[in-house]
Amino acid sequence: MKIFLCEAIHQNAYDELKKYGIIIDDFNQIQECEVLINRNLKMDKHFIDQCQSLKLVIIHGSGYDDIDVDYLKHQHIHLCHTPGYNALSVAELIVTMMLELSRKTHLLQNDYLDNQINTVAPIAYLGHEVSYKTFGMIGVGKIALKAAEILKNGFHMRIIGYSRSLTPQLAQEYGIEYCACLEDVLKEADYVSIGTSLNEDTYHIITKKELSYMKPSAYLINTARGAIVNQDDLYYALVNHQIAGAGLDVLENEPVESSHPLLQLPNVVYTPHMGASTDEALLRVGLAVVDAVKKFKNGEICEHLLF
Length: 307
Known about the structure:
Number of domains: 2
CATH architecture of the largest domain: 3-Layer(aba) Sandwich
CATH superfamily of the largest domain: NAD(P)-binding Rossmann-like Domain
Strand content: 5-15%
Shape: globular
CATH topology of the largest domain: Rossmann fold
Radius of gyration: 21 Å
Distance between the termini: 21 Å
Largest sheet: 7 strands, parallel
Number of helices: 11
């Protein structure tokens, strides 16, 4: 069996993967592969048509908004993903961004290295404590709940959340406060974290209107997908101090140029889609991918098969 690998995976997972087939990374041979492991590759109709032997696409992660799912189904090609295995790493980045924005560490380091600070404890960089504030979740998945666990237990934060699938009963089970609508989260939270998937319903669900509900002292954190937030509206809100700042691990149409307007703002912390980029997360996801390949080869159903 030939397996197409779009990008490098964890070395330990790669060594395991070799047991189940011949690994190919040359696009000129893609028509020979039965399995394709996808990290960040856009798969439109034209690309899928080149994969003449393809039977299974495995997502190295959870999101598959860059894949023409309908055409995959039409071609009778299966799709599975590996959700949740990187949740802890992304959750830790959410907390990191909250702390960095609140304590202005990114500004302190840059300004100190630029010789703009010549004293200790400069009052101009006075920050805020994260503890005992309110953390609001838009989308209540594994990443959001892991971040909530860290923040509730470690920082004594109040946790509120909204998603279409969340019920008061589920919220009670998760140990969070239920919000009946998006507006409630935006109005009450000191930190709003976006964790929903990107689809037709969530494209640009955060616009000028939604941002206007947030407190001037509140921060927006997005580690999900860039297109969930209207970036022009976010820029306007940040420049005009309608909100205090934003932590962004994702932007629309990645990768973006370093000259991107949002990246020029002092109240923005940006990482280029690095949420899941830890050794531990890559190993867990990589081994989950290998398990899916193994099950497929043995004629078994993959654990997270979508269709």
